[in-house]
Design goal:
By secondary structure, the protein is α/β, with parallel strands linked by helices. Helices cover 43% and strands 9% of the residues. The chain has a 4-stranded mixed beta sheet, sandwiched between helices. A hairpin with a 3-residue loop joins strand 3 and strand 4. Helix 3 packs across helix 6. The longest helix is centred in the first third of the chain and has 27 residues.
Length: 194
């Protein structure tokens, strides 16, 4: 979380957006054939894609001209870039639900909680203070496990979950179908090069 702004992927994407959004999209795209075929043979609500977002999505919207390295991206704070990537997770998850729920895929996004992990390694002195307000790592997977395995979570496609395994409300723009379509098209264009 919040690596130095000069850290980018080998392909020149913002490190956080490339890892958190583009990487997740590409993996999901590669898995879609098996997810769809499995859904045809499985009980309803059992084939799931769970995207880990964050409450950090409240601090960054999608600005397509900052996904790749350049002056506009470098002018942003890393906290904002992180928020943008987490907004991207929610927008992608909601769009995945819109596109594939009729084929049996349940897609959810979630905030796992403020967990004390190595993700805060770039926080400097704030890392020490932050540990007083963070939950033990043992809590870190509770909401993901619920979204991925609980019977009742099979009906939560398109939803945003918050700690500890509750339905929450993300920023309204993360649920915008037009934004979801635009992000999906952009992501498709990027992975077409691979």
């Amino acid at each position: 979380m919040h690596p130095p702004v000069d850290m980018v992927t080998d392909d020149g994407y913002d490190l956080q957006f490339g890892t958190n959004v583009l990487g997740h999209f590409y993996l999901t795209k590669l898995l879609l054939p098996i997810l769809i075929s499995t859904a045809k043979l499985s009980p309803e609500g059992t084939v799931r894609v769970v995207n880990t977002a964050s409450l950090g999505h409240w601090f960054g919207n999608l600005q397509f001209d900052t996904f790749m390295d350049g002056p506009k991206r470098r002018a942003k704070r890393t906290f904002w870039l992180y928020g943008q990537s987490k907004t991207g997770n929610i927008v992608f998850s909601a769009e995945l639900h819109r596109r594939y729920h009729d084929q049996g895929i349940v897609s959810t996004a979630l905030h796992p909680g403020t967990i004390n992990t190595e993700l805060t390694r770039y926080y400097g002195n704030l890392q020490q203070i932050g540990t007083w307000f963070l939950w033990d790592v043992s809590y870190g997977a509770l909401t993901q496990l619920y979204a991925g395995t609980a019977l009742e979570a099979g009906t939560l496609g398109g939803q945003y979950l918050v700690p500890w395994a509750r339905v929450g409300t993300p920023r309204a723009d993360t649920q915008d179908p037009q934004l979801g379509k635009e992000l999906w098209v952009w992501l498709e264009e990027q992975v077409a090069k691979l």
